Each structure stands twice: as C-alpha cells, then as structure tokens.
Amino acid sequence: MRPLYHGDDTAVLRTVLHRAQRGHSARYLVQRDHASPSTCVNVQYLGVGESGASGRLEFAMDNENPVRQEARFSFALPARAKVELGLYDVSGRLVRMLVDEELAAGPHDAVWDLRTKHGRVPAGMFFARIKAGSEPAALRVPVIQ
Fold this sequence. Notes:
Distance between the termini: 23 Å
CATH architecture of the largest domain: Sandwich
Strand content: over 45%
Order of helices and strands: EHEEEEEEEEEEE
Structural class: mainly beta
Number of domains: 2
CATH topology of the largest domain: Immunoglobulin-like
Strand order of the largest sheet: 7-6-11-12
C-alpha cells in the first residue's frame, strides 16, 4: 500500500480531520518518522468501514488527488441496496457508469480507468456520484494528464 499523504504533521492531520468532519468514517494508518529532522508523516488510506457500521452509506476515493491514471473508489453499504455509481463532467453529463446493480451490505470497490467509450478523458474536473437506495453521495475527481 503506498502512502496517500506526505508532509508535515499539521498539513497531513488537517486533511485527515477535514475528511472526518465531513462524515467520512474512513480508516487511516498514520506513520511518523521521528528520526528525520523534519518529522515526516505518511498517512495511508485503509478503506471505509468494514460493513457500513455507521448505519449509512460510506463513500471515499482511495487514491491521491488529483488523479493521473485511474480513480479507485470504495463504498460500504449498511444494507442490501440498488447501487448506481457514475462519473459526470462539470456540465452534469454522464461520462461513465461504473456500477448499476443491486449489491449486498458491506464493503465494495470500483475502479475508473479514466476512459469513456470514446477514449481517455481530457484533464479537468469530474464528479463521482453514488446512489444506494435513496441515499446519495458525491466526490470531486480532478484529472490531470
């Protein structure tokens, strides 16, 4: 598993706390290298809760931001539900549907290879929107070349 964040304690912990305050119940592994004069911190994303234990939909992007080659998403369902997970451009047009099926409760993953049926998407801002039953969630997905 490669580190998600590198940097000083303050910047890394601010990012993790910001995600926690927004309702993410994601799990992180924080590693500190106190032998280094500049106290490096590595934070690795370990995924969303194992079984949607929060009682609601959990949705997170598992790789660094911005995205270069692929976007990996994880989500956890508190109960069996019809799930739709799609990628949309800034004008709201569907770019790619990743999941459109009924899934069991628990953790699930999806990967977007930054492609549509016409080829690779250009650099820009995209949105991952998931709907599980009647519960929606969305994430920004900035793509760079």
